[in-house]
Amino acid sequence: xxxxxxxxxxxxxxxxxxxxxxxxxxxxxxxxxxxxxxxxxxxxxxxxxxxxxxxxxxxxxxxxxxxxxxxxxxxxxxxxxxxxxxxxxxxxxxxxxxxxxxxxxxxxxxxxxxxxxxxxxxxxxxxxxxxxxxxxxxxxxxxxxxxxxxxxxxxxxxxxxxxxxxxxxxxxxxxxxxxx
Length: 180
Prior knowledge:
Largest sheet: 6 strands, mixed
Low-confidence stretches: none
Number of strands: 6
Structural class: alpha+beta
């Protein structure tokens, strides 16, 4: 029952329609700390759905797309990001986001047919997802934006123009009385 939407730039958000606090997260589906922080923030949103908005961005630490990663690391996370970007185009981002974070540590190749089933997406709509140029372009936009913020890893958070890496300092949330 928590509102969701898309920013003017096309990035999915969840939480308050008129937020007091906007948190933009840059994450990687294979990153354990990203999963932990994502679900921590989602828990905060569930307790304060009319005050916090989370905007999701991608910053896969996959050497195939991220120029700061020079050796194989979090292999496949770029493809996972593309799948979730595609899912956003058909209003299934948050379903797919949840699924991808929960299979993230599985080192076996993921099955697009199974992901489609779990997210309630007809397979015919998603079977060519890894060839969707729009989704790859959106991913590259996120990576370039993360680089502009000087991200060196994940998760990264932007709050009021300030960048925080790894976690959000508790004093930031205390300012809004979300954390005591």
